[in-house]
C-alpha cells in the first residue's frame, strides 16, 4: 500500500456499491434466474409412476396404456383426458395403441405360400380354427397357444415376436417398437413385450432405453448431458436457461441440452454451430493462431485471455482483434465487436456479394473463436493466479485471504467472456437496424469492460482490490443489462 | 442346404417352383443364404431389354432384418448408386418380417419402372433426372445397351 489516500478513496467509493449484488442477484433483476431441481433416477421413477397412476384412475385404463398415451402426447395429462373423453376410440387409434377396426377385417397379407402372388385376406377367426396354426414368419406349424397378436390381429408365434423385439432393442428402439405386420404401425405395449421377451440382457436394455425415452418425451425433464451422469433436471417451464448439475458440474441449456448460450436462442445457436462445423476449415485457415505486431512486425502468439496486447519487443499497445492502437479502445469508441457492412452491397455482383458474406461470417466467427480460445487461456490465468498468490503470501505481500478477491475476479471474467462469446452468433443473425445497433453498442461496452478486467486481473497487486472490484461490478452490470434487454425466453 | 431355417427353405422352394415373371433368383450352390438374381428391364422403361444382375443375401437375423440387395450390373438410376446400392424404404426402415424375398424383388422391379429422383441415392444422377429428364432417359437407355447386355460389365 504505497498510496494510503488513494486506497481510502476507492474503498470509500466502493462501500456504497452493494457488492453482494454481484454474487447473488435478486430474482427479478437477474435475467438468467431459473428455478429447477436436480433429481435422482429413483425420484424420477416415482414421479412418473404417480403421473401414470393419476391418468389410470381418471381414464380407467391399464397402466401400460396410460404410459403409452403419456409418452405419445408429451405427458400433457389434461389434454389427453380431454381428447379421450371426446372420442376414446378415435384417440387410441390415432395414438397407434388400438388398431382401426376398418382395417382389421381387410388386413392384406402379402405373405402367403400358396396361390399365386395375390395377397390373401386374413381373418383371425378363419385362420385359427383348428388346434394348430402355421406362423407366417417362421413357417412352422405350432399349437394355437403359441400365438399372440395385438388388436390388429396380425398373429405371429411367440418365438418370432421374441426375436423381433430382440432385434429392435439392439437397434435402440423401445417405446417405438411396432407390430411385425407389413405396413402395420401399431405400437407394442410394454407388458406385451415383457411377457414374451426372454433374453435378460435385452430386457435390461429395454428398461433402460424406454426410461430415457420417457424422459425425452417429458417437457419438464432433461437428463444431465454430462458423461455417465444420471441426474435428471426438472423445471416447471421448458425455457432455454442455464442449469448447473451439482453432481458432475456440467452447465447446459435446459431446453436443448447443449452448452448454455445466452443471449442467442436454441435454434440460432444450432444453426451457428452447424455453420461453423461446415466452414471451420476455411475459417481456421484464415484466422491463424498468431499475428504480427502492427508496429515492429514481430510474430506474436496470444498467451492470455486479454485482447489488450503489449508487444514484448517494442512495447506498443494494440488490440488483438483489429490490430489498431489500444488507446482508441476506450469504452465509447470500442468498435471492434461491430461488423461494418458495405452499404452498397445490393448493387454489387454475386461474386462480390459472396465474398462479402464470407467476410461477414469470418468477422463474427473470428470473434466467437477468439473468446472461446481466451476462455481456455483464462483457465491458465487462473492457475497462474493461484501460484502468484502463493508467492505473494510467502513474500508477506498481503494475506492469503486478502488475495482471494483475485480468484473471484478471474471467475467473473470467465462468466463475462462466456456470455460475450455467445453474443456473436446472436449478432450474426440479427437483422440490420436500430435493435442491432443497440445490441452491438452494449456488446462493445461489455467487450471494453471485459478487456479492462482481463488486463487488470493478469497484473493486479494487493493494493488494487478496490479498483478491481469496481471493474468487476461494472462488467457484471453490463453483462446483465445486455442479457436483460436481449434474452428472449 | 441343411441348417437353413424353414422359412428360407420354403421361400427358396417357391421362388424356383413359381418364379416371378421377369425375375430369376437362384441360391448359390455353396450358400443357401446367397442368391444370384437377374431382373429383366421392364417394358416401357429405359431399362427395357436389359438383363440386370443382382446379388441378394439373407443375414443371420432374416426375416427379422431385411435382406441385403445390390446391383452387380452398372445402371443409370437416381435411386441406385455407382456401387449398385439401392435406396428402397422396405430394405430399410419399412422392412417387416412379413415381407419376403419375392416382394423385395418385385419392389426393385417396380423401382426400375418408376424412378424417384426426389429421394435420391445418387445425387448427380438425380439432379440430371430433374434438370433434363429426356437426356437422363437417353443416358439410362445407353447404359442399358452398354452394360446390361453383357455379363462381363458387372460391377465387381
From TrEMBL, chain A:
GO terms for molecular function: ubiquitin protein ligase activity; zinc ion binding. It is found in: Nucleus. GO terms for biological process: protein ubiquitination. Residues 131-340, 135-179 form the RING-type domain. Its EC number is 2.3.2.31. One of its GO terms (cellular component) is nucleus. PROSITE patterns: TRIAD, ZF_RING_2. This is RBR-type E3 ubiquitin transferase. It comes from Lottia gigantea (Giant owl limpet).
TrEMBL record, chain B:
InterPro entries: UBC, UBQ-conjugating_AS, UBQ-conjugating_enzyme/RWD. The active site is at residue 87. The keyword Transferase applies. One of its GO terms (molecular function) is transferase activity. One of its GO terms (biological process) is protein ubiquitination. SMART domains: UBCc. Keywords: ATP-binding, Nucleotide-binding, Transferase, Ubl conjugation pathway. Residues 3-149 form the UBC core domain. It comes from the Eukaryota. Belongs to the ubiquitin-conjugating enzyme family. This is UBC core domain-containing protein. The lineage of its organism: Eukaryota, Metazoa, Spiralia, Lophotrochozoa, Mollusca.
